[in-house]
Amino acid sequence: MNRIVVGAQWGDEGKAKITDLLAQDADLIIRYQGGCNAGHTVVADGKTYKFHLIPSGILYKNKTCFIGAGTVILPEAFEAEVNELIKEKIDVSGLKISPLASVTMPWHTEVDGFSENNTSKGKIGTTKKGIGPTYTDKAARIGIKVQDLFDEETLSEKLDVILPLKNKTLEKVYGLKTYTKEEVMALCKKYAQIFKPYVAFDWQEILESLKDKKILFEGAQGVMLDVDYGTYPYVTSSNPIGGGACTGSGFGPKSVDEVIGVAKAYVTRVGEGPFVTELTDETGDKIRKIGHEFGVTTGRPRRCGWFDAVTMRYSALVGGLTSVALTKADVFDTFEKIKVCTAYKDKRNGEIYKNYPTNVYIHKYLEPVYEVHDGWKEDITGIREYDMLPENCKKYLKRIEELINVPISIISVGPDREQTIIRKA
Ligand code: GDP
Ligand code: IMO
Ligand code: MG
């Protein structure tokens, strides 16, 4: 069974927890897009691990953990993450990087930082890890790939094209420092040393040999942050949706059996952009406090709000979800009432939207239409069987399934690997 794990909201849904859980049965765990903008938390045997680029399956021995061609890699961040794992005595011998992955160069992080610090109106609230500028250069065909670092002649030829262009833009548009070719060649030499033990130049053989094995595609970010389908322009610069798994990994669509969308029992978002069910009151604060909703990568407080079935239905559609893993239901254990947004209402004319309006510039005119559910007022963190869940919790889950028209196959009731209910089909 080959599965894709997709974030079904705006990221931080608990994808890493679900990936770690499913990785037990997988031979290959592959990250297909994004970079160290991701912050993934796994809690296993009471210990917390945080990943950014490295697939969350790395905690198991004898698995191949692949960083795919669709990713962007910030060398220093990769090095720090690997070193941290080695320090923790975690076996990284199964870790591989695609030679086709893109390298985030210093000018990418500098431009990302500059754009974020200098645009108050068009601010995206990025993680400042250079993600957007790296993907921009990849699409503009002036990017550097991991494989280029290992071929001095190619690199030199490439830099003769890239650097004059880059320097002009850095200096004239951004007023940032420029780079000499010697400087960049030396930097790339250093990067090559960092990547060397992990680069899979034999990746075609590796993928070929794993074709009939069990593959787990690990998503980062979430459908609503997808550059084509998300709340553009308040998105990341890659394709976190299920479809992105194929382009980002090198496996064809026929290799996929299931697409599991991970969603919280509520919604969070970091950074700017529309969020119709956002709670800026004490209920939002309560969710943030109980759910520990602070970014893994940037430490920023996450914006919190009620479950939004409108975006979730959309996400199920474009994300290609075959089932949902619902996380953090336990955060509601003490809540008297829980709201679910079933539609949006346009404050200007009363128009009701059941489908997600893709022009996000009108979202400021939209308000959520809620239905209210009774809470279950019971600690569910120790429950491991669906039937043992309180009736009101089951009602809540059933209603979500009805609204999004996708079955909930996994219910997570706490951060630990063990705190999971796998629902029998
Ligand atoms: P990811 O980026 O989607 O992997 O998610 P993050 O790691 O950024 O954020 C999810 C957070 O919720 C982490 O701190 C997890 O340990 C935690 N978490 C995951 N599932 C659950 C759950 O069911 N209940 C609770 N209380 N915490 C959870
Ligand atoms: P995981 O994998 C939550 C958000 C940023 C910003 C926007 C663009 O942990 O779910 P970028 O740095 O990608 O150019 O920022 O996307 N963002 C995330 N939000 N979780 C993530 O990853 C995110 N990765 C990027 O906050 O709004
Ligand atoms: Mg995260």
Can you tell me the CATH topology of the largest domain?
Answer: Adenylosuccinate Synthetase, Chain A, domain 3
Characterize the main sheet.
Answer: 9 strands, mixed
Overall pLDDT, averaged?
96
Ligand types: guanosine-5'-diphosphate, 6-O-phosphoryl inosine monophosphate, magnesium ion
Q: What percent strand?
A: 15-25%
Identify the CATH architecture of the largest domain: Alpha-Beta Complex
Unreliable residue stretches? none
Calculate Rg over CA atoms.
Answer: 22 Å
Shape: globular
Q: In sequence order, what are the helices and strands, one letter per element?
A: EHEEEEEHEEHHHHHEHEEHEEHEEEEHEE
Number of helices: 11
How would you classify the helix and strand content by structural class? Answer: alpha/beta
Reconstruct the topology from this structure:
Layout: E1 3-7, H1 15-23, E2 28-31, E3 40-44, E4 47-51, E5 64-67, E6 72-73, H2 75-87, E7 95-97, E8 102-103, H3 106-118, H4 131-139, H5 152-173, H6 181-195, H7 203-210, E9 215-218, H8 244-249, E10 258-264, E11 267-269, H9 282-290, E12 303-305, E13 307-308, H10 309-319, E14 323-327, E15 337-346, E16 352-353, E17 366-374, H11 391-404, E18 408-412, E19 420-422
The structure holds guanosine-5'-diphosphate, 6-O-phosphoryl inosine monophosphate and magnesium ion.
